Amino acid sequence: xxxxxxxxxxxxxxxxxxxxxxxxxxxxxxxxxxxxxxxxxxxxxxxxxxxxxxxxxxxxxxxxxxxxxxxxxxxxxxxxxxxxxxxxxxxxxxxxxxxx
Length: 100
Fold this sequence. Notes:
Number of helices: 3
Oligomer: single chain
Strand order of the largest sheet: 2-1-3
Shape: elongated
Number of domains: 2
Strand content: 15-25%
C-alpha cells in the first residue's frame, strides 16, 4: 500500500516491513493518509451463529474441557469449531450482591 505520512512523505508499506503493516492497521489515520491499496478478495463462507446464555463458571469449565481434549488428542477440532460458532452471552446482573 502507498501512504502519505503525517510529515508529507509518501511511502510504500508492504510485507517486507511487518512492523509498519501492523502499526498502520491500528493507526486509525494517525500515521497519515492511505493513497493506494491492493486488497486480497476471498469468497464468503456460510457461518452458523447461535447464542445461548452461559455463566462465567460454565464458560471456564467448557474452556478447560477443550484444553484437556487438545492436550490428550493433539486436536479438538469439533470442540473448537463449536466454540467458534457459539456466541456466549452472559446474563447481565446489576445487583450490588454479585458485582457484575
